[in-house]
Design goal:
- There is one protein chain.
- This protein is an alpha+beta fold.
- The protein contains eleven helices and 15 strands.
- Helix content is about 40%, strand content about 25%.
- Strands 3-2-1-7-9-8-5-6-4 form a nine-stranded mixed sheet.
């Protein structure tokens, strides 16, 4: 049995194992096919250098997962019900797991990260139960014409930012690998996603709920601002996905910097209100999530929090840490049935 971490973000679907392997693809799915005969051949080198969408077959239906905009109408789900599964999420899970593990059949224990505000909502227990109902069991299909099956035997649902904390503190065996003083100290995590901004604080292994908050002040705000600017300056507006892709590919253009600075200001304000005057008491502030990959957002946060720590890959840090925690689920199953599906 392998330990995996799943971060089903709105921007990217990420999956990792405890050995440090990670896979990510855009959280976009479409119904369609890739028709190579329609290609001109002029862009072959550039096309081969990038990842084509994965072709996922579930029963009698075929889906494209990842960069699907050139081949099918994207089905972008930004609602919280998506975490309970459905064909789009199943296609993303199989495509990401196939990228991570390759062809074959696998058995796993999984830790899954959800946004903080989802876990603080009145219906959080129902959401967690729906995630577990979807994930526990067998997930079988074809990915790029090859058979693939993932049987998930145990699931633990956690707050997404805890993944970054685990990536910072746990080793590949799921044990604390930093000095004991770091475990006892107060550590905060700022997780900037596409549709979410989560703040989490931990001290001596316990969550400090006073400083734990979540909202929707994420990179989506920059995408919305960019769309408004393009509509005003160029007479057309991209979709949110197109705006996000534009920001990532043209981040140095003035119009992109304006949009990102607007989002960075809102993000820093949210973090200041959440953490208040406790910032000087923090051992570290871990910056994670796809939003941290944008220099204006990362630099504004680092100026505000001098003790900030940025993982080597902030986009996949949550998934990696969740995978390291999932090793503990495997140990629980070996120790007795009580921990089998905690």
């Amino acid at each position: 049995m392998i330990a995996i971490g799943i971060d089903p973000g709105f921007g990217n679907f990420k999956i990792a194992d405890a050995e440090g392997r990670v896979a990510a693809l855009p959280s976009t799915v479409g119904v369609g096919e890739i028709a190579p005969a329609l290609e001109t051949g002029l862009g072959r080198r550039r096309r081969e250098a990038s990842r084509l969408p994965d072709r996922v077959r579930l029963g009698n239906l075929s889906y494209l997962a990842g960069e699907v905009e050139r081949y099918a109408r994207p089905a972008d789900r930004l609602d919280m019900d998506r975490f309970g599964g459905g064909p789009e999420m199943e296609a993303l899970l199989l495509a990401a797991a196939f990228r991570l593990l390759g062809e074959g059949e696998f058995e796993a224990a999984a830790s899954v990260g959800l946004p903080v505000h989802v876990l603080r909502a009145p219906d959080a227990a129902e959401t967690v139960a729906s995630v577990r109902r979807w994930l526990i069991g067998e997930h079988r299909g074809e990915v790029n014409g090859r058979p693939f099956a993932l049987r998930i035997r145990a699931v633990r649902v956690l707050a997404q930012p805890l993944g970054a904390f685990f990536a910072w503190g746990l080793d590949g065996s799921g044990r604390w690998a930093r000095p004991a003083a770091d475990f006892k100290a107060r550590v905060a995590v700022i997780d900037v996603g596409f549709n979410t901004l989560d703040i989490f604080a931990v001290e001596a292994g316990e969550v400090i709920q006073r400083f734990t908050q979540g909202g929707t002040v994420g990179v989506r705000r920059a995408a919305e601002r960019l769309a408004d600017l393009m509509r005003a300056q160029r007479g057309w507006a991209p979709s949110l996905r197109e705006a996000d892709a534009w920001l990532r590919g043209n981040g140095q253009e003035e119009i992109s910097r304006q949009a990102l600075e607007t989002a960075a200001s809102e993000i820093v304000t949210f973090c200041e209100q959440a953490l208040g005057d406790t910032a000087p008491l923090l051992r570290a502030v871990l910056l994670t999530g796809g939003g941290v990959a944008f220099a204006p957002i990362r630099e504004r946060l680092m100026r505000r929090f001098p003790n900030a720590v940025v993982p080597a890959d902030p986009v996949t840090a949550n998934a990696l840490g969740l995978a390291r925690f999932a090793v503990r689920l495997i140990r629980e199953r070996k120790d007795g049935p009580a921990g089998a599906e905690a």
